[in-house]
Specification:
- Helix 5 crosses helix 8 (about 210-220).
- The chain has 9 helices and 10 strands.
- The chain is an alpha/beta fold and about 270 residues long.
- Strand 7, helix 7 (about 145-160) and strand 8 (about 170-175) form a beta-alpha-beta unit.
- The longest helix is centred in the middle third of the chain and has 20 residues, at about 145-160.
- It has helices spanning about 20-25, 25-35, 75, 80-90, 100-110, 115-130, 145-160, 210-220, 240-255, and strands spanning about 5-10, 40-45, 50, 65, 70, 110, 135-140, 170-175, 200-205, 225-230.
- It starts with 6 loop residues before the first strand and ends in a 16-residue tail after the last helix.
Length: about 270
C-alpha cells in the first residue's frame, strides 16, 4: 500500500514581513504536521515592498513586503508603538459593538485599496496555484489572511461557475481580516454578497486584539457548521506556542482525514 500523501497548504505572511519570517513563526506548526506527514507548508512572498512597521512586537527582518499595497491614513502611519495602537483602537470603540461588522467598518475607513496592485496580486496568487499546486488549504495572518480568504473565495466561485471540484479543503486564519473581491471591496456577511467560504475554517483570534472585530467579521463569512475558533490571551499577533499550534494541527488532521476532495457543495450562496 502506497503512503498517503499529506496536504499542501499555501501560506501568506502578514504585512511588512515576508515568507521566511512567517515560516520561522510557524515552526511549531510545521514540526507538528510533519511528524506524521499530515501536511507541508508552502510560503509565498508578497509582491510589493513597503515600509517596516513602527510597532516593535510586529517587527521582522527585511525584506518588508505586502500582498496588496494597502494605503493607510496618516493616523495609522504615525503610530509609533503598540500602546499607541491600542489607545487609538480603544478611542474608536472597536470591539464594543454587538456586530463586529459595525466596528470593522470604522477600521476599514483608514484603509484604501488600489485596483491595479489588487489585480496584480490576485493574478500572481493564481499563477502560484497553477504552477506550484494543487494546494489543499491556505494559512494567512493579518493582511495575509485577507489574501488567503480571497484565494479561497475566488477558487470556490470559479469552481461553481465551471462545474468542477476545488482542491481546497480548508482555511486557517490568524488575527485575520475579511477577503477582498475583484472590485476592491471587503466581503462582509451583511453586505448582501452571496460569496461565502464553506470549506472548514480555523480562526485564531486574540482576546486582547484591538481589532479582534476584523477576525470575527471574517469568521462570519465562513460556514458556521464547520468553522473552529481558537482564542488566546494575547493581542494582534501570531500565537506560536506549541499548545495552540497543536490544536491547529488537530484541525488540519481532521480535514485531512476526509478521503474526498471538496465538492461544489462547499460553495453556496448565503442564505441557502
Amino acid at each position: 500500500m502506497s503512503e498517503k500523501k499529506g496536504l499542501k497548504l499555501l501560506c501568506f505572511h502578514g504585512g511588512a514581513t515576508n515568507g521566511k519570517h512567517f515560516e520561522q513563526v510557524l515552526w511549531h506548526l510545521q514540526e507538528n504536521l510533519l511528524t506524521d506527514n499530515t501536511a507541508t507548508l508552502y510560503f509565498v512572498d508578497g509582491l510589493t515592498e513597503c515600509l517596516p512597521t513602527k510597532i516593535p512586537i510586529y517587527e521582522a527582518a527585511p525584506p518588508f513586503l505586502s500582498h496588496y499595497a494597502l494605503e493607510l491614513t496618516e493616523e495609522f502611519i504615525n503610530m509609533v508603538d503598540e500602546k499607541d495602537f491600542e489607545l487609538w483602537a480603544a478611542a474608536q470603540g472597536f470591539n464594543n459593538e454587538v456586530l463586529p461588522e459595525a466596528s470593522l467598518r470604522t477600521v476599514l475607513n483608514s484603509v484604501k485599496i488600489r485596483r491595479e496592485p489588487l489585480s496584480m496580486a490576485h493574478d500572481y496568487m493564481q499563477q502560484v496555484i497553477d504552477q506550484d499546486g494543487p494546494f489543499h488549504g491556505v494559512i494567512g495572518a493579518s493582511e495575509g489572511a485577507v489574501a488567503a480568504a480571497s484565494v479561497l473565495i475566488r477558487d470556490l466561485e470559479m469552481c461553481r461557475r465551471n462545474n468542477r471540484k476545488s482542491s481546497f479543503k480548508c482555511g486557517i486564519f490568524m488575527v485575520g481580516f475579511p477577503a477582498i473581491n475583484e472590485l476592491g471591496r471587503w466581503i462582509l456577511s451583511d453586505d448582501g454578497s452571496d460569496l461565502r467560504i464553506t470549506v472548514p475554517t480555523c480562526h485564531i483570534i486574540g482576546d486582547n486584539d484591538p481589532v479582534a472585530c476584523a477576525g470575527k467579521a471574517l469568521m462570519n463569512t465562513c460556514d458556521p457548521d464547520s468553522r473552529v475558533l481558537i482564542s488566546h490571551e494575547r493581542g494582534h499577533c501570531i500565537p506560536h506556542e506549541p499548545g495552540i499550534m497543536s490544536r491547529v494541527g488537530d484541525f488540519v488532521r481532521k480535514v485531512g482525514a476526509e478521503d474526498e476532495l471538496p465538492s461544489l457543495d462547499h460553495f453556496s450562496p448565503a442564505g441557502e
